[in-house]
Design a protein that fits this description.
The protein is an alpha/beta fold. The protein has a single domain, classed as Aldolase class I (TIM Barrel). The protein contains 14 helices and twelve strands. An eight-stranded parallel sheet has the order 4-11-10-9-8-7-6-5. Strands 1-12 form a two-stranded antiparallel ribbon. Strands 2-3 form a two-stranded antiparallel sheet. The longest helix is centred in the last third of the chain and has 22 residues. It is globular. The structure holds ligand FNR. Ligand FNR binds next to α1, β5, β7 and α12. It comes from Streptomyces iakyrus.
């Protein structure tokens, strides 16, 4: 069942990428153009650091898959592309390995193919501290991601319905493991209240994982035969909304969910993120066109992120946070409703 679910997720996520309208709330963020603000490309560094972590680039391949033969092959290709481009990467949820140790290889292949890269292991918020350690050991992870997915579980036919212990478990894991803990949503967003709770729990970094890209309410709906939850299609906050909402949080923010191109990465940095990640867009490339196409896509993104920073006059990702942005439309209304200046 679990292996079949992992294959379903990949198939339905790629279908969503094919059908995506292209529009999301990142379009409500634009830069004020200052024609004399530019710097020299040779002075621009993409390196970003946060919570004791150093990345050479402000871009990462976010959590997706593992646990079946097909998804193990995808993980191998994602890891090769990460190695070739120096882009940090996350495993998909390691839960299948806890249930069936025979699936170990579908995750550990990522470390074998990418021996020196930055790898995050991904678990859910019901994982025991012992299993959190096993997940880290499996890929010799540099950081641990814990995903929050109440809405996905709600729509998933075989989903979890007990959420009250998640906060306590996150606190236990963050205190016990020796690597930075990143807590992420899977596409419905983190509110500023949630980010504040995470900070108190000892979590190092919050990945806002907002809406606007891969939609797990729709994916799980696609796996249901009866009583579908189509009315949850628009649930949650978009990634730029989350960044604005949680701006000034005491812990660093990562931006993911609906990041479509290098401009969305640079917009995320301008809204205060230390880096931006994507899943669906990279999955589509590797499934449709193969690993070399993904290497080319990641290289192009990195080159264009640097080009945009050069024109905007940001020598580092951190300098992007002081650039002039305008917020329009539904995103502006969200800010008004939430009292965001
Ligand atoms: C995901 N995502 C995900 N997240 C997570 O924390 N653990 C997981 O196991 C998975 N599995 C998974 C499978 C597939 C096929 C996709 C496409 C995505 C969610 C992912 O990390 C991310 O939060 C969302 O996909 C939103 O980002 P994009 O796709 O809009 O860039």
């Amino acid at each position: 069942m679990s292996a079949e679910r992992k294959d379903d997720h990949v198939r339905l996520a790629v279908e969503q990428q094919h059908g995506h309208s292209g529009h999301n709330q990142f379009d409500d963020v634009s830069f004020v153009h200052h024609a004399l603000a530019g710097v020299d490309r040779s002075d621009v560094s993409l390196a970003t650091s946060f919570a004791g972590v150093e990345w050479q680039v402000p871009l990462y391949i976010n959590a997706m898959t593992g646990g079946s033969e097909m998804t193990g092959a995808i993980n191998r290709d994602l890891a090769i592309a990460a190695r070739e481009t120096g882009v940090p990467i996350a495993t998909g949820s390691v839960s299948p390995y806890f249930k069936n140790p025979d699936t170990a290889e579908t995750f550990s292949v990522m470390r074998r193919e990418n021996p020196d890269g930055f790898i995050m292991a991904n678990i859910n918020a019901t994982t025991s501290v012992d299993n959190a350690r096993r997940a880290i050991d499996l890929v010799r992870a540099d950081a641990l991601q814990i995903h929050l997915n109440t809405i996905q579980e709600t729509v998933m036919p075989e989903g979890d319905r007990s959420f009250s212990s998640w906060g306590r478990r996150i606190e236990e894991i963050a205190a016990a493991v020796g690597v930075p803990v990143v807590v992420k949503e899977v596409g419905f967003g983190l509110s500023r209240e949630t980010v504040a709770l995470l900070e108190k729990s000892g979590v190092a970094v919050a990945d806002v994982g907002g809406s606007g890209g891969t939609n797990f309410a729709r994916i799980e709906n696609g796996r249901r035969e009866l009583a579908d939850y189509a009315f949850l299609d628009g649930w949650g906050q978009s990634t730029p909304a989350c960044l604005l909402d949680a701006g000034g949080a005491g812990i660093p923010l990562l931006a993911s969910g609906g990041v479509r191109d290098p401009l969305d990465v640079v917009r995320s940095l301008a809204l205060g993120a230390v880096a931006a990640g994507a899943s669906g867009p990279f999955l589509r490339t590797v499934v449709d066109d193969g690993v070399e196409a993904l290497v080319a896509q990641l290289s192009t993104w990195l080159d264009q992120i640097a080009a945009l920073m050069t024109a905007l006059g940001a020598r580092t990702p951190a300098e992007m946070a002081s650039k002039d942005v305008l917020v329009h439309g539904a995103l502006r209304s969200f800010c008004d409703d939430r009292g965001v200046a």
